[in-house]
């Protein structure tokens, strides 16, 4: 166990604010502790000599040594209580009391002071505004909830106390047990990352689940979860899906990669399975807590009912799994064992008159097939198929083959005893075939994520000082946006750019064009004009002789379109062969929780319409950068679809890595778009650049 082990295994628990008053939270917590806690319970209240038959102490100093304190006093004396506990040597504290940052104003200041006290005294504080904590091995229920938890191997954290009370009520009915339960409250000191680390070190926790509304430190959570999920699966429900984060974004990347996509990317990189509902959360957890990992993605379905068998097949098709293709030997064995009317191909339909012997033989043959990694037993109730006997048959086959099997014993009361028997052997039963398949799917997805290796990001030789000089330009402007005039930022980090220059008079434009071999591209340069081509601010294939007039026309169009726009000049750039290339976008949006969020996808003028993009949290290694390229629907274009010459995919992957290093090195970069990044057979070129800089953050960065 880790540094929070005594939080869940105390010998003495004090309730600071204990009372015998009916309906009081202090009484509810004391009663819950008295009902099952193995250790000593110590009430503390200066107004009582005795509470519910226990000797009550006037303050912490006069009480026996306290391992864990549950604080349920009024908000204005919480801080004094915590100071007294720290002075008495108590390190683990749960603050039930509300009235902190969630109330604003004075409450927020109180919470700030609580954090300071905890830091100064190295305290482990849960809450404030917490329902409390539970640990079933010691019988400790230090909450004011109405339900105690059953014993089990799932550890559960929630940002909502009400969610815990509802879940425990439902889980007790379903026979689902827990190891530890924590109501996170305001997460002033201890947060989700702390408990992920703690339970990852706990050999008695098989699965970590949680309900979260936000993650305070996304980068820290990813780092911790990556380590933990190598051995212990994590399943989370994350609420609060919103597009609000994208509304204020000024770049393509910011508009596409809003806060919700940051959570999706961050949790996936952390190896966390994300559930879409409470039902799915426990469907996943039940499979992960009791079943071995499948060796392959092939699923066998054994049923006595054709319709449910088809539903199960559809569910497999909707998952990351696949229906197993039986070996010829398996089909021959099934044909010999089953009636002529039975279906011996997958799904196996043993037909409605199947008895225990036939059902068991079909399952045994299926599990012995080398292409089967897992199985679903789907049964409709009949007079010749007692569910209790079927449960025993399933258990025997699972023990003999060490292959994950889930069941779908359809029906009501008839299935309850069998369901209990299966659960005691770690085999989950689901009423709905699609839920049964989702449990197996979670096993396979966890297997893949736990086996995935992430290398240290590559460090390129870059000109950091030159890059910093470019970013400093934002300090000298009226706004914090930079554009193509800052292409040397990319050059400083080794990202290729076409030959060219930004000029502020037509004569210089012609000189630059004459120095470039062939026709050129000309673009207006203005931080105020986003869609240059829409206003005629881009001309392609301009001969050197026509550059002077083209310059005047581009500037005139820009001033007519937006008279108050700041015109930096016109970019004169070599013309690339776009016919043989693919326009992509590489960008970054800095998320408040997860930090730099990298985006790659199909670029050009339709990027926000098509949204063919992939997202990851930086920094990324080469493998992750390559995944980003492979994920987009347009990936075949880069690899040479329909006779096209393949693009330099390695160059794209390296550009993503270099951008990852740039935005990691400079937290002052809030948003950045390279659009398009042209990827052709001969390499990649960054054609256009747009970024937003926080000048104040520049002051905090190392030179």
UniProtKB/TrEMBL annotation:
**What's one Pfam family the UniProt record gives for this protein?**
CoA_binding_2
Q: Which residues form a coiled coil?
A: none
- Report which reactions are catalysed by this protein: acetate + ATP + CoA = acetyl-CoA + ADP + phosphate
Keyword hit for DNA repair: no
Keywords of the record, alphabetical order, are: ATP-binding, Ligase, Nucleotide-binding
Q: What region holds the ATP-grasp domain?
A: 487-523
Entry annotated with the keyword ATP-binding: yes
Q: According to the lineage, what is the superkingdom?
A: Archaea
GO MF term set: acetate-CoA ligase (ADP-forming) activity; ATP binding; metal ion binding
This chain's protein is named acetate--CoA ligase (ADP-forming)
**High-level lineage:** Archaea, Methanobacteriati, Methanobacteriota, Stenosarchaea group, Halobacteria
């Amino acid at each position: 166990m880790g540094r929070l082990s005594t939080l869940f295994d105390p010998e003495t628990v004090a309730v600071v604010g204990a009372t015998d008053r009916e309906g009081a939270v202090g009484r509810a917590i004391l009663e819950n502790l008295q009902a099952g806690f193995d250790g000593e319970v110590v009430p503390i209240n200066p107004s009582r000599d005795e509470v519910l038959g226990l000797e009550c102490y006037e303050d912490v100093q006069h009480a026996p040594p306290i391992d864990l304190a549950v604080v349920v006093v009024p908000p204005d004396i919480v801080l004094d209580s915590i100071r007294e506990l720290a002075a008495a040597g108590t390190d683990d504290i749960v603050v039930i009391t509300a009235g902190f940052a969630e109330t604003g104003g004075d409450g927020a200041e109180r919470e700030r002071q609580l954090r300071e006290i905890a830091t100064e005294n190295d305290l482990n504080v849960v809450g404030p505004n917490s329902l409390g904590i539970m640990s079933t091995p010691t019988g400790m229920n230090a909450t004011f909830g109405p339900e105690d938890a059953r014993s089990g191997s799932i550890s559960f954290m929630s940002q909502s106390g009400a969610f815990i009370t509802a879940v425990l009520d439902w889980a007790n009915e379903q026979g689902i047990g827990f190891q530890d339960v924590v109501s996170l409250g305001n997460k002033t000191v201890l947060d989700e990352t702390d408990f992920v680390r703690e339970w990852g070190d706990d050999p008695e926790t098989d699965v970590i689940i949680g309900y979260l509304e936000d993650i305070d430190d996304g980068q820290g959570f990813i780092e911790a979860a990556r380590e933990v999920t190598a051995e212990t699966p994590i399943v989370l429900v994350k609420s609060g899906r919103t597009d609000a984060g994208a509304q204020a974004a000024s770049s393509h990347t910011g508009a596409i990669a809003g806060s919700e996509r940051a959570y999706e990317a961050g949790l996936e990189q952390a190896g966390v399975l994300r559930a879409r509902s409470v039902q799915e959360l426990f469907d996943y957890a039940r499979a992960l807590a009791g079943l071995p990992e499948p060796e392959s993605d092939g699923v066998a379905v054994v049923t006595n009912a054709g319709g449910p068998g088809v539903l199960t097949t559809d569910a497999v098709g909707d998952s990351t799994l696949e229906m197993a293709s039986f070996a010829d030997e398996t089909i021959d064995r099934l044909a010999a064992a089953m009636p002529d009317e039975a279906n011996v191909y997958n799904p196996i339909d043993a037909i409605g008159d199947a008895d225990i012997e036939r059902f068991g033989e079909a399952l045994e043959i299926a599990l012995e097939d080398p292409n089967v990694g897992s199985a679903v037993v789907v049964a409709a109730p009949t007079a010749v198929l007692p569910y209790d006997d079927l449960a025993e048959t399933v258990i025997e086959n699972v023990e003999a083959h060490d292959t994950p099997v889930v069941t779908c014993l359809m029906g009501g009361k008839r299935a309850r005893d069998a369901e209990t028997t299966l659960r005691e052997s770690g085999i989950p039963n689901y009423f709905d075939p699609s839920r049964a398949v989702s449990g197996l799917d979670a096993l396979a997805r966890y297997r893949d994520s736990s086996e995935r290796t992430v290398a240290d990001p590559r460090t390129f030789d870059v000109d950091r000082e030159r890059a910093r000089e470019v970013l400093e330009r934002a300090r000298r402007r009226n706004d914090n946006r930079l554009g193509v005039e800052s292409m040397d930022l990319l050059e400083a980090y080794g990202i290729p750019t076409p030959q060219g220059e930004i000029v502020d008079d037509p004569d210089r434009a012609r000189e630059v064009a004459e120095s470039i071999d062939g026709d050129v591209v000309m673009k207006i340069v203005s931080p105020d004009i986003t869609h240059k081509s829409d206003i005629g601010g881009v001309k392609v294939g301009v001969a050197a002789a026509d550059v002077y007039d083209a310059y005047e026309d581009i500037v005139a169009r820009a001033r007519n379109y937006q008279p108050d726009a700041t015109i930096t000049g016109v970019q004169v750039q070599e013309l690339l062969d776009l016919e043989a290339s693919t326009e992509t976008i590489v960008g970054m949006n800095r998320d408040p929780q997860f930090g730099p969020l990298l985006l790659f996808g199909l670029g050009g003028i339709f990027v926000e319409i098509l949204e063919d993009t992939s997202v990851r949290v930086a920094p990324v290694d080469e493998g992750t950068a390559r995944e980003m390229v492979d994920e987009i629907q347009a990936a075949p274009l880069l690899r040479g679809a329909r006779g096209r010459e393949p693009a330099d995919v390695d160059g794209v992957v390296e550009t993503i890595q270099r951008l990852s290093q740039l935005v990691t090195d400079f937290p002052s970069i809030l948003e950045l778009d390279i659009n398009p990044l042209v990827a052709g057979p001969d390499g990649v070129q960054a054609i256009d650049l747009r970024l937003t800089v926080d000048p104040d953050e520049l002051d905090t960065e190392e030179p």
